[in-house]
Amino acid sequence: MSYAVTALFGLLMGFGLSRIGFSDFGEVHRMFTFQDFRMLLTFAGAVTLTAIGLRLINKRALFRPRLLHKGTIAGGALFGIGWALTGACPAIAVVQLGEGRRPALFTLAGILIGTWVYPKVHERFFRWDPGSCS
Amino acid sequence: MQNFWTWWMGATTLASVAVGFAAATRRPFGVSGIYARLLNWREERQAEKVQKHFAAKHASLSEASDASAAALPVPISFGLTFVAFIFFGGLLSSIVANDVGIRFELGADFERLVGTGWTAWLALLAGGALVGFGTRMAGGGTSGHGLFGCARMQPASLLATVAFFSAGVAASFLLGMQ
After folding, report:
1. Higher pLDDT, B35 or A130
2. Residue numbers in chain B where pLDDT is lower than 50
3. CA-CA distance, B125 to A106, in Å (whole number)?
4. Subunit contact B154:A71, Cβ cutoff 8 A
5. Is A122 part of the contact surface with chain B (CB cutoff 8 Å)?
6. Fewer beta carbons within 10 angstroms: which end of chain A, N or C?
7. Residue A69, by phi and psi: left (phi above 0), alpha (psi -120 to 50) or beta?
8. Whose CA is closest to B29, among B168, B164, B146, B127?
C-alpha cells in the first residue's frame, strides 16, 4: 500500500464516476426511474467484470466476509432514499465538489453528520453485532 | 456536462479501478468506511500507536499470516489520500469536459425535482444524513457493498444493493410525482 497507488486509483475513481454520469443528479434520477439504462448497465457490467477480475487475483486479496445483520437491509433502504434525494452516494459527494458544485457541501455535511450520529444511535437502540468496534 | 461514457467504457473503468486497487493493495476500498474512520480519528490514532508499539516489540515474529493481516486496518492517512484524489478526479473530469468553474447548482433536473434555495439545501442535508446513516447501518455503500461485495457474491452485499437500489427507485418515482 503506497500513497502513490492510493492517489492514482482515487483519481481514476473520481474521474470515471464523473465521466460516467454518477455525479449528475439528472442522470442518476433517470437511472432510478428506468428512463435510461446506460448507468444500470454500467453498474452491472462493472460488478461482473470485477467479479471475474477478483477471481483472477484471488490468491492475493485479503478480504473479510461482509456480515449480514439487521442493519443491512434497513440501512440500505435509508441510504437509497438519501441517494435519490441528493443524487449522491458517499464517494459522489466528493466528486461533485471536485466538479465545483457548491451544493455538494450540504450533501457532504449531511453525510458526515449521519455517519457521526449512527454509532450513537446504535449504542443506544440497536442490539445486533455489526462486526466492528466503531 | 454531457457526452457521458458508454456503458462498457464505464464498466471497464470501474472494474479496472476495483481490481487494480485490490491487486496492488490486497484490499477493497469503501468511502463510507473512510468517513467513519476519519470521524473516529482519536480512536484511530490510539489504535495506530498500539499497533506500532506491538509491531516493534514483536519484530522477531515472521510476517503475520494472511488472516491476521486482513484484520489489521490500513492507516487512515491512506483513506484520506484516496478521498482527496477522488476530489481531484472530479476536477480533472470537469477540465476534460471543458466545464470548469464553481457552480451553485446541481443541474436543471435537481432544481425541477427537489427545488432551489434553502429548502433544497435542507433536502441535501437531510438526504446526506440518510446516506451517511444508512451506509454505516448497512456496513457499506456502493463501493463496498455494491461493487466489491456483489462481485464477491456476498449475501449481505447482494441484499444491501437490492435494498438501496429499490429504495432509490421508489424515492425517485415519488420525487417525480410531485
Report:
1. B35
2. 62
3. 5
4. no
5. yes
6. N
7. beta
8. B146
The rounded radius of gyration (Å) of the Cα atoms in chain A is: 17
- Mean of all residue pLDDT scores within chain A: 92
Residue among B26, B89, B156 minimizing CB distance to A15: B89
Judging contacts by C-beta atoms under 8 Å, the chain B residues touching residue A123 are none
Is a pLDDT exceeding 80 seen at residue A75? yes
Residue in chain A lying closest to B3 (CA):
A19
Measured CA to CA, the distance from residue A74 to residue A65 in angstroms comes to 19
pLDDT mean over A51-76: 87
Whether the CB-CB separation of A97 and A105 falls below 8 Å is answered with yes
* Sign of the dihedral defined by the CA atoms of residues B175, B161, B126, B108, in that order: negative
Q: What is the pLDDT of residues A86-99, one digit of tens each?
A: 999 999 999 999 99
Summarised one tens digit per residue, pLDDT across range A103-117 is 999 999 999 999 999
From the list B93, B12, B83, B20, the residue with the least C-alpha distance to A15 is B93
Backbone angles phi, psi at B103, to 5 degrees: -120, 150
% of chain A with per-residue pLDDT over 70: 96
pTM: 0.92
Contacts of B102 in chain A (CB under 8 A): 100, 102
Give the three cell numbers for residue B15. 472494474
Output the pLDDT for position A82: 97
Mutate to test the interface with A, among B8, B66, B130, B166 (most CBs of A within 10 A): B130
| Cα–Cα distance for residue pair B97/A69, rounded to 1 Å | 42
pLDDT at residue A134 greater than cutoff 50 = no
User: C-alpha dihedral over A98, A103, A105, A111, to 10 degrees?
Assistant: -110
Element (H, E) at A114: helix A104-125
